[in-house]
Specification:
Blueprint: E1 29-33, H1 38-47, E2 53-57, H2 67-80, E3 87-91, H3 100-111, E4 115-120, H4 126-143, E5 150-155, H5 158-162, H6 164-168, E6 174-179, H7 181-187, H8 210-217, E7 221-224, H9 233-246, E8 250-253, H10 256-266, H11 270-282, E9 290-292, E10 295-297, H12 299-318, H13 320-326
Length: 333
């Protein structure tokens, strides 16, 4: 058993100290881009201000003959383009892939200072994270990075889901988790050909989501995965909204139309924010029981309201329209 006192010591000499808390920034959408396409690379400066997280995809949906081009395109974006306060992520190829090692070594060496999170697909157990954890520490030390790269786990097999609690606790690098619905459906022998979303045979809109509790228990962030039917905007919004209420902080977006859906769903409603601000003003220390608008409010409500207002304040800094709607800064700012 690893000594818990060593958990926050670097796993390689001269590697940066592991993160003690996972930073939480606007994360309403992880927008996937295939940078093997030069047109997508050129669109990046215009798209970046519209999204919270921009992800250079190297895995599924990138054909084998374009894997290296996708990696090179991502490196170009990280080297040459100013993304402002938009986070840059990547989804590398799975650990079993012959492309994984080149993905990790080249990206850390070339743009490790720009990348914030590495999404690792098909994680099956803590052993996968232990391998990636040590490897990243060695590469960070070699590249002279000052902060550690974080890991986002994609659970796409029955074994990965069965081990999700152990995976969540495997490393201080664990930034969050998502389910990969198509591969997971195949692993479970589910009778569906859909990538996320509802199905006529389902009796419920969504399954209970143990990922949310596994993530929040260790300070990581739960995300909703891809919704594959780009044309079904109503279904997409329904699924995103269900995940938002369960505690997911954002979702994957595969097309620009889903960016706006994610922005709308994962941004708190202005009326809810106004009420939360009223509760906090009436109970500034979070103690006691108060009657507000004819309803009893106590410390539990206060905690809910703090979550709501903290998120609203964060989003207001990025989005002037939301800032005005939330009444957090003057409209002219």
């Amino acid at each position: 058993m690893r000594n818990p006192r060593d958990f926050f010591k670097p796993l390689a000499i001269d590697a940066p100290e592991p993160a003690r808390e996972i930073p939480f920034k606007p994360s309403r959408m992880i927008h996937f881009m295939d940078f093997s396409n030069p047109k997508m690379v050129e669109k990046t400066p215009d798209l970046a201000p519209k999204v919270d997280i921009l992800l250079g995809n190297l895995e599924d949906a990138v054909p084998l003959e374009k894997k290296e081009a996708a990696r090179a395109g991502l490196i170009r974006v990280g080297r040459e383009m100013d993304l402002g306060d938009t986070a840059l992520w990547t989804r590398v190829n799975e650990l079993a892939s012959p492309y994984f090692l080149d993905d990790i070594t080249q990206l850390v060496a070339e743009i490790g200072h720009k990348l914030e999170v590495i999404m690792i697909p098909k994680v099956e157990g803590p052993w996968d994270i232990h391998y990636a954890d040590r490897l990243l520490a060695q590469l960070e030390a070699k590249a002279g990075l000052e902060r550690p790269l974080l890991i986002h786990c994609v659970l796409e097999t029955s074994q990965g889901v069965a081990n999700l609690e152990e995976i969540a606790c495997a490393s201080p690098r664990i930034q969050g988790m998502s389910f990969g619905p198509a591969d997971l459906a195949a692993s479970r022998r589910m009778k569906t050909t859909r990538v996320g979303g509802g199905h006529p045979g389902y009796r419920t809109i969504a399954d209970p989501d143990p990922e949310v509790d596994a993530c929040t228990a260790v300070g990581a962030l739960p995300f909703y995965g891809p919704y594959g039917d780009i044309r079904d905007v109503e279904g997409c919004e329904t699924q995103f909204r269900a995940s938002f209420l369960l505690g997911c902080v954002g979702a994957w977006s595969l097309h620009p139309v889903q960016i706006e859906i994610a922005k709308r769903v994962y941004s708190p409603d202005p009326e809810e924010v106004a009420f939360a601000k009223k509760v906090i003003a009436a109970i500034p220390d979070g103690r006691g029981v108060h009657m507000i608008d004819g309803k009893m409010q106590d410390d539990a409500t206060w905690k809910q309201c703090k979550v709501m207002v903290n998120l609203a304040e964060m989003l207001a800094k990025k989005d002037p329209e939301l800032a005005e709607a939330y009444g957090l800064v003057p409209a002219s700012v």
